[in-house]
Amino acid sequence: MSVKLLVFDSHPVQYRVPIWQTIARLQPGDIHVVYASDCSVRGYLDTEFGQSFAWDEPMLEGYGYTVLNCEKGTPLSGWASLTGKGVGKLIDAFKPEAILLTGLNYRYDLMAYLEANRRGIPLWLRCETQDEAVVRSRSKATVRALMYKVTYRKFARIYYIGELNRRHYLKHGVPAEKLFPAFYGTVDRFERMPADEKKRLRDASRASVGISDTDFVIGFSGKLIQKKNPGILYKMLADLPEELRARTWLYFLGSGELEPALKLEAQRALEQFKVRTCFAGFANQSQLAAHYLAMDILVLPSRRMGETWGLVANEAMQAGCGVVVSDAVGCHVDFRSLERFRVFKEGDPTDLARAIYSLSTFARNFVWPRKVLENYSILSTATALMEKFSVA
Fold it and tell me: Coil, strand, or helix at residue 213?
């Protein structure tokens, strides 16, 4: 057997699987995906969410795949947790025209990299690495830069997910002619949803927790952890104009270690400012739409602890929310010029309040960013990855 593109992915990921499914639908038989582990399907403990779960949408349907189960200890827990045993045999079995890696995080990725080069098979890369998401010492940055410069030389094609990702590759010696756009995106749950259904879901979701039509809902979606800095939403309340604050709700979608502390802050905010809070908890993929529709804006206030993109910003815009992100969030460079997108200085609650207030003047609109997001769609990425194999 042979395929045009053999993909090596660590495990089924909810925002990558739809790419493989779309390619298989558009070009049947041209792609096969190899997973080191299927832990995200059978269920695993996510320590940052603070619970065990499996994604509730079909992750292993609609495309060809193989699960190597080359795990050592707890999968996804470190470099050696995915070993790469059996990678070479699979490459020989499928005889691909090209091999795509989705990361360089595990021994598994290194084995695919080495085995592809050993056989002279063109090697491609699409991952989210950039240089501004984490503060590093000069010595660490120097070693990291050297490793990347050596590693990237062996790739025939590198697909960048956004502007900071593109700058990273150029900085580390990748020639511009090897770089191709395949922007970060996720499934659009709202694209074919009628406007009246969006309104119905929004009204029902808000009514279920006591939010009125005139209330202003500031949302957060993700893990309640230090990296995401959700507590700054309470710190910025003092800087919101009183008229806006009086009708404000905070809406936390997610779970994590900071939840008890945030609930204490919620009680203080209620007593001091009469600001109410909804803790919606963890929501699986099929449950996300109603939560985003309930929000008016979404805030992603992450610190420089590795927020290389911030896909919740894409999801919120698909639902028509305004979005505010810190300047530590990777996508801020790509989206900052959009009408209902704001960027604030990392860790600055006053600047955050200013950004929120500027978006509060817009009426809720379900479709404002739709044209822009076409380039950040699953179809756009799938088409970009298979363009080389398309018949002119």
Answer: coil
Task: Give domain 5-185+377-389's CATH superfamily.
Answer: Glycogen Phosphorylase B; (3.40.50.2000)
Q: Quickly count: other Cβ atoms within 10 Å of residue 19's Cβ.
A: 29
- Burial (CB count <10 Å: 0-12, 13-18, 19+), residue 308: buried
pLDDT tens-digit profile of 270-324? 999 999 999 999 998 889 999 999 999 999 999 999 999 999 999 999 999 999 9
CA distance 153 to 175: 9
Sign of CA dihedral 94, 98, 100, 105: positive
| Amino acid 44: pLDDT | 65
pLDDT tens-digit series, residues 334-345:
999 999 999 999
Instruction: Enter the tokens of residue 52.
Output: 């065990």
Residue in this structure with the two tokens 């697909």, named with its chain if needed: 159
Q: May I ask the CATH architecture of the domain 195-372?
A: 3-Layer(aba) Sandwich (3.40)
Whether 195-372 and 5-185+377-389 are alike in CATH topology: the answer is: yes
d(CA 215, CA 164): 36
Quick one: tokens of 32?
């096969």
Q: Around 89, how many Cα atoms within 13 Å sit in the side-chain half-sphere?
A: 5
In the chain, where are the structural domains located? 5-185+377-389, 195-372
What is the DSSP annotation of 313-353? HHHHHHTT-EEEEETTSTTHHHHTTSTTEEEE-TT-HHHHH
Q: What is the longest distance spanned by two Cα atoms in the chain? A: 67
Q: How far apart are CA 260 and CA 114, in angstroms?
A: 46
Q: Which residue has the tokens 């349907």?
A: 61
Q: What is the pLDDT of residue 45?
A: 66
What would the two tokens of residue 49 be? 């969410």
- Which two structure tokens, joined as six digits, stand for 15? 């925002």
Specify which residues 100 forms β-bridges with.
7, 124
Read off the pTM.
0.95
- The sign one gets for the Cα dihedral 206, 300, 230, 354 is negative
Sheet holding 341-344, edge to edge: 276-281, 248-253, 216-221, 297-300, 322-326, 341-344
Mean pLDDT per block of 10 residues along the chain (392 residues) reads 95 96 97 96 74 79 98 95 97 98 98 98 98 95 96 98 98 98 96 97 98 98 97 98 98 97 98 98 92 98 97 98 98 98 98 98 96 96 94 48
